[in-house]
C-alpha cells in the first residue's frame, strides 16, 4: 500500500483501538479484578497495554524526530514514489498466542496504577500517536527504521511501529475476552 493509504489505515486503527478499549474500563470491579486460572486479570492486562505503549512511544517519538530530520536531507518524494508500506506483516501481532514472546519485566503490571489513570493514560497515548502521525503526514515515517525483535520482525519504520502498538492492543482484547468468558462461566456455576 502507498504512504497515504497506510497513514489512513493507521489513523483508523488508532481510533478503533481507543473505541474498542472503552468498554473494558466500564466492567464491574469484581470482573475487572477476577484472576483467571492462567494469566492476568483484565485490570492487569489494561495496565500492561499502557506500560507497553509507554515503551513503544519512546521509540516512536525518537523515530518521528529522526524521520522528520532526515526528510530535510533526503529527496522524500523520490523515496515515496518507490516505497510501499507492508502493514500486513504486523497483523500476526494481533493474534493472541500466535508466536512465542517473553515480555520484559518492566512491561509486567504492578497493580500500582488506578483504573481511571490507566484509562486516561491509554487515551493520551493513542492521541499522541495520532498527533505524531499528523507530524509525518507527508511520508517522513518511512525514512527511519528501528529493529523490532518481537516475532522476528526486523527493521520496521515509524508508521509500522505505530501500527504495531495498535496490533498489540488488539491482541490483548482477545485475552480480556477469554478472562470475561471464564468469569461468566464461574459466575453462572455459583
UniProtKB/TrEMBL annotation:
InterPro entries: DinB-like, DinB/YfiT-like
Origin species: Paenibacillus phytohabitans
Organism taxonomic ancestry: Bacteria, Bacillati, Bacillota, Bacilli, Bacillales
Coiled coil: none
Domain DinB-like positions: 14-176
Pfam families: DinB_2
Highest taxon in the source lineage: Bacteria
Gene3D superfamilies, per database record: dinb family like domain
UniProt protein name: DinB family protein
Amino acid at each position: 500500500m502507498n504512504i497515504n493509504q497506510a497513514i489512513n489505515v493507521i489513523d483508523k486503527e488508532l481510533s478503533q483501538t481507543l473505541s474498542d478499549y472503552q468498554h473494558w474500563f466500564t466492567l464491574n470491579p469484581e470482573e475487572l479484578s477476577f484472576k483467571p486460572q492462567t494469566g492476568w486479570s483484565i485490570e492487569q492486562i489494561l495496565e500492561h497495554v499502557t506500560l507497553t505503549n509507554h515503551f513503544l512511544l519512546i521509540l516512536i517519538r525518537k523515530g518521528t524526530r529522526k524521520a522528520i530530520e532526515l526528510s530535510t536531507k533526503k529527496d522524500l518524494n523520490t523515496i515515496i514514489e518507490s516505497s510501499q508500506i507492508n502493514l500486513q506483516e504486523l497483523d500476526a501481532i494481533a493474534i493472541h498466542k500466535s508466536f512465542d514472546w517473553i515480555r520484559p519485566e518492566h512491561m509486567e503490571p504492578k497493580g500500582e496504577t488506578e483504573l481511571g489513570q490507566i484509562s486516561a493514560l491509554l487515551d493520551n497515548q493513542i492521541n499522541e500517536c495520532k498527533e505524531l502521525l499528523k507530524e509525518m503526514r507527508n511520508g517522513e515515517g518511512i525514512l527511519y527504521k528501528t529493529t523490532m525483535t518481537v516475532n522476528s520482525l526486523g527493521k520496521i519504520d515509524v508508521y509500522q511501529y505505530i501500527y504495531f502498538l495498535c496490533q498489540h492492543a488488539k491482541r490483548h482484547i482477545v485475552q480480556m475476552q477469554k478472562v470475561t468468558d471464564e468469569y461468566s462461566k464461574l459466575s453462572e456455576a455459583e
